[in-house]
Amino acid sequence: MEFINTIDWSFWGPLVSILVLICMSAFFSGSETSLTAVSRARMNMLEKEGDHRAVIVNRLIERKDRLIGALLLGNNLVNILASAIATAFFIDLVGETGVVYATLIMTIVVLVFAEVLPKTYALTNSDKMALFIAPIIRIVVVIFSPITNLISRIVNLTLRLLKVDAGGTNMADLAVQELRGAIELAHESESNEFIKESSEKRAMLRSILDLVDVDIEDVMTHRSNVVALDANDTMTNLVDRVLNSPYTRLPVWQDDPDNIIGVIHAKILLRELRSVSGNIDRLDIRLMLLEPWFVPETTTLFDQLQAFRERKEHFAIVVDEYGSFQGIVTLEDILEEIVGEIDDEQDLAATGIQMQADSSYFINGTVSIRDVNRELDWHLPDEDYTTIAGLIIHESKMIPEEGQSFIFYNYRFTIIKREKHQLTVIKVAPLPPPEDT
């Protein structure tokens, strides 16, 4: 006690106060960085495992505006108070020039020890630090909430007066963006020896996220490529077409190709053939048809995948807004959007993309842009069209002749083959990047 009484508090008191305030400033700065950089995925996982601190972290970052407001308020309070005490201390010590000394010294101290150092530590240990400081920050947020709420209202009012959109980012959209960023980061961090495997994994993960944004019209088999049966044809011809087809399910129409009356399954046909001892004339295809399932072409892949699971079906007829037959979509079509082409013994080996000796590619006009981007790791847009032929027709505003060449999106497209009004084979060559001048 005698030692404490002998301390000159007029000199050491301000220094101790400044030290405490700098420590508090470092705490607020580090807390802000750790809670904004924390992994939401890891916190959700820890919350499910019963970690009560992870629960607090998740509740705090659900209201980031209130959290950041409280942390900035606390940080500014202690920084301003520390600067004020330092200014008064140096003025008493050296006179009016103490203002200059206080400004220089406090700027360096605050920058190094209250900003850079704690933020650097928080960035490299964000999850660990967030879990540690969450209970304390929750109390700070509650204490400062009346002031931060008032500040938020003033800010929102000011933004509205300036006609600035103050709407927050949708958390679901933000989570998807973070996932996409994590996928790209994981791909870039892969070593060269695993680059092909990494590209395939990246394509699969991208495709899963895209299921809610892609319509089935982008992956369906167009009606021009669908093997369909005419119910009015002879039974012998119908049986031959079913048995010679590589597909197990075929749509059946009557009188008009748009009038789909059912779907024939090869297994049902074989069962009926056995029941009549192979006497085809005793068969009636209309008695073997499964009820057709019609789906609109604007259905997303995610919704259609869920519908396939709920109905326990693998095959659907795609129609447009007028009810006209547009094509078919299968469960395999959707799965191929995720994992790539799934070839069986009946499928053709060719994908419609053939590399040439000059590093260009011959691509069938019906190949979808999504498949091209996946196969070649290109980034051709597909918002307004589905296929390579569709891209050329849309961008050129015409149906080109054979031999015509166009440059779109830094690729050269040359029409190799055209049948009637269809562009069947297109040569596509990436152009070299422009040289820096």
Keywords:
five-stranded antiparallel β-sheet; 15 helices; 437 residues; 4 domains; CBS-domain; alpha+beta
What percent of residues adopt helix (DSSP H or I)?
40-55%
- Computed structural class: alpha+beta
Anisotropy-based shape: elongated
From the alpha-carbon coordinates, what is the Rg to the nearest angstrom?
A: 34 Å
Average pLDDT reading:
81
**Domains (count):** 4
Low-confidence stretches: none
For the biggest sheet, the summary is: 5 strands, antiparallel
**Topology as H/E string?**
HHHHHHHHHEEHEEHEHEEHEEHHEEE
If helices are DSSP runs of H or I spanning 4 or more residues, what is the number of helices?
15
Portion in beta strands: 5-15%
- Tally the beta strands: 12
Describe this protein's structure.
By secondary structure, the protein is of the alpha+beta class. The chain has 4 domains: 9-166, no CATH class; 172-210; 216-339, CBS-domain, CATH 3.10.580; 353-430, Uridine Diphospho-n-acetylenolpyruvylglucosamine Reductase, domain 3. 55% of the residues lie in helices and 14% in strands. It is built from 15 helices and 12 strands. It has helices at 2-6, 9-37, 40-48, 52-62, 64-94, 98-124, 126-161, 171-189, 195-210, 235-244, 266-275, 301-311, 331-339, 369-376, 388-396; strands at residues 221-222, 229-230, 249-254, 256-265, 294-296, 315-319, 325-330, 353-355, 361-364, 405-408, 411-419, 422-430. The strands form 3 sheets. Strands 8-9-12-11-10 form a 5-stranded antiparallel beta sheet, covered by helices on one side. Strand 8 (353-355) and strand 9 (361-364) form a beta hairpin. Helix 2 (9-37) packs antiparallel against helix 5 and helix 2 crosses helix 7. The chain is elongated, with a radius of gyration of 34 Å. The model has no long low-confidence stretch (mean pLDDT 81).
